Amino acid sequence: MAIEASLRDDILATLPRLRAFAISLSGKVDRADDLVQETLLRALSNINSFEPGTNLQAWLFTILRNQFRSEYRKRRREVEDVDGRYAENLTTAPQQQSHLEFQEFRQALTQLPADQREALILIGASGFSYEEAAQICDCAIGTIKSRVNRARARLAEILSIESSDDFGPDKMQAAVAGARSR
Length: 182
What we know:
The protein is mainly α. 71% of the residues lie in helices and 0% in strands. It has helices spanning 5-26, 29-45, 56-77, 85-88, 95-110, 114-125, 130-137, 141-158, 171-180.
């Protein structure tokens, strides 16, 4: 796969800024270099999705940020468990509950007005920025933010969600899981 010399030069010119951004995110030079390398690999493998004339630097920074966030979420779930003690205490909630909750969520989503549902899916599920979602919907950024905010509030109302404590296992399930881990 050959890329145009001017595009290659523009990518190379962005490397110092990408590396500085990666260092600011990760706090480690070696980790930052890995992030930049992964960013370049992803960018080059998806170079056909880049639209000439748009902001190359923003595209590369978005790839880097998304890569960092994905790896951060993955690392947060990882636990060092050399002697296996942690693994012995793991329990898994029955999947029926999460399946039912997902069905309830999908049903609640259909009750939203189409413009709010569209904005919420673009931002929350598809990972678009507010600016990108506004462009897709051909409206102002403030309009998208307002639609997403109203959609989230309405979903919380439909699903009877009052706080973040309403997510995950209920008190009975948590008590049973806690008893198993002792």
